[in-house]
Design a protein that fits this description.
Blueprint lengths: L11 E3 L3 H9 L10 E12 L5 E9 L2 E8 L13 E9 L9 E14 L3 E7 L12
């Protein structure tokens, strides 16, 4: 009766590579919400922006299956992903006035390891957040 008071154990699921991890992430149906971190696979590299950001073609794992978008790193990011990496895309804004492939405004927050923790989510390998990014204030 009181089993729900006990801590549940974390189970780790390790995948062979980023593609296998992304295929599994597609089955988890991530909702596209504000401030959500959505697993994505980097499928192509684009241009370098005027402020120093790197643009990448991403394949997001979402409720509808897969969504292809362009996403940048932050201008002062300490690193950037490579094609084939599993990354976390952070949604900052929905721009409904733009076409569907450009309607998600956000940035690539981190590179993920192909390891899924049942309670904590994907393991972060490297953060691409710059040091001058102010923390969010939630009241």
């Amino acid at each position: 009766m009181f089993d729900w008071f006990h801590d549940k154990e974390d189970t780790l699921t390790e995948f062979q590579n980023s593609e296998a991890a992304f295929a599994h992430a597609c089955t988890l149906h991530y909702p596209l919400l504000l401030n959500a971190r959505i697993p994505a696979l980097v499928v192509g590299e684009g241009r370098r922006g005027a402020e120093g950001e790197h643009w990448y073609r991403l394949r997001l794992a979402c409720q509808e299956g897969v969504l292809d978008i362009w996403g940048p790193t932050l201008p002062e990011a300490p690193g950037h992903p490579e094609v084939g990496d599993l990354v976390a895309f952070r949604i900052v804004r929905f721009a409904t006035e733009l076409p569907e492939d450009a309607s998600l405004i956000g940035y690539i927050e981190s590179r993920l390891e192909p390891v899924l923790n049942s309670r904590k989510g994907w393991r972060i390998a490297l953060s691409f957040r710059s040091d001058n990014l102010k923390p969010e204030l939630h009241l």
